[in-house]
Fold this protein.
Amino acid sequence: MKIKPISSYSKMSKLAAKIVAEQIINKPNTVLGLATGGTPLGMYRELVKLYKKGELDFSKVTTFNLDEYLGLSLEHPQSYHYYMYENFFNHVNIEEKNIHIPKGDTKDPVQECLNYEREIEKVGGIDLQVLGIGVNGHVGFNEPNINLEARTHVIQLSNETIRANSRFFKNLDKVPRKAITMGMATIMKSKKIVLMAWGIEKKKPILKVTSGHIATEVPASLLQVHNDVILIVD
Ligand code: GLP
């Protein structure tokens, strides 16, 4: 794991955007794995800036988002669909057919997971996966547990995650209890991974991710087994 210490949120966002941009310039038909949450917002803003300056072309890029809440409509302002279009896809020249986000309003979540995994395989896997980290060490929505599901699956959100994510909802009761997430094996198969962590509440999980110990109770600690992870951290 390569650790890149940074001193500001803006520097973290710029560095992450630079890594993504270089990847796209070197391989225009790159398959990107994308994350949501507060952490990557600045990176999306930087990528949009590069596109508007004419320095980046997303026309051949394919994307797969890590996760989505189950039970929210695609137009729900807290759905990850809404987030991705609002903060990124609406502002760059990515083709609609190349965008993939698990469908949180599906009638058949299990089938949706199988289809999602198949779509990723069909394009030859993810070249560069962008990740944030939850306060409990989750990546995507892979929650701490003694057992982890390898592939894309339906997950019951932990109380800690429901509490942490309730800041985006009117109240705790409005936070969905379930989600679809790529599994740790799906994530680990990405050729390259950029993990971003910003803020004091990420100190505890990040110390575990760099500790040398691997535990399914800290899903992000599995990233220590991957041979091309860049951790950008304050
Ligand atoms: C959510 C997402 C994760 C994200 C995490 C941290 O639970 N499913 O992919 O990394 O939140 O979010 P934030 O960046 O807002 O701290």
